[in-house]
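README: folding subset

This subset contains proteins for which both the sequence and a predicted structure token string are available. Records are stored as plain text. Below is the entry for SH3b domain-containing protein (250 residues), shown exactly as it appears on disk.
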Amino acid sequence: MKNLIVAVLAVSLFSCAENKDKIGPIKKEIVPVRKDSNITTIHHYDGRCNIDNDVSSLGIGMVIAPLKFVMYDDSLLKGESQQVDMYGKYDSLNNVCSCVFDPEYGLMHFACIGKTDRAYKVLINYSQVKWLPREKDFQFKTWEQYIESSFGIRRKTTTDSTRTPIGLVRKEPSDQADTLSIPAGQEMFCAMQVKGDWIKVQYDCFYNTENNPYEGQPCHNFINKCANPVTGWLRWRQDNQQLIDIFLMP
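--- output ---
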């Protein structure tokens, strides 16, 4: 896990401290602009697509697209269409900026704001609406499923020189609840349960261990082996803004 981050979502998410985050078959001809996964405020699409991109609405979940797909302007999938090939010509990716965007690793995850029997209603370029077919090659996950199936999560940080983690670990899913302290070092949490805007998390006691025996494994494979585990709640979104990096790969 210390070799790749996506935030996605971030997928953050989805690079961060010590470039701990990425593996995969790099396609050198596709080089999207990168940025830190630090939380920012973006109110419109500025023409740049990063790994982790703000959207006007986080919606009901995420749609995970295949390497090649078609998107449409209408819910009946009969209007104007656009072919997208992540491993083909970079031109097919022009003006298609998804919530999680890293075609080098086959990652284009779209914030889904609705669905019909035929199609998913998704966002690109912050607030532009497109439609993807509800076919087997497209995978839809609610935010609960998306977060709980991740390899791990961590808090985004402020953009100033302090790089302070955003939010506190609390004993209950409430901004008024007492806080918990976590061990010093680079943090990583395992998402145990999503409850609205909050996630029940357990601190990954192995993340800062030299020669981590569980390196590259999903956190649910080993998190119960932590002695005296620190368990609490993190707010993962507020005012439609994502407050965490989500690790989608080891």
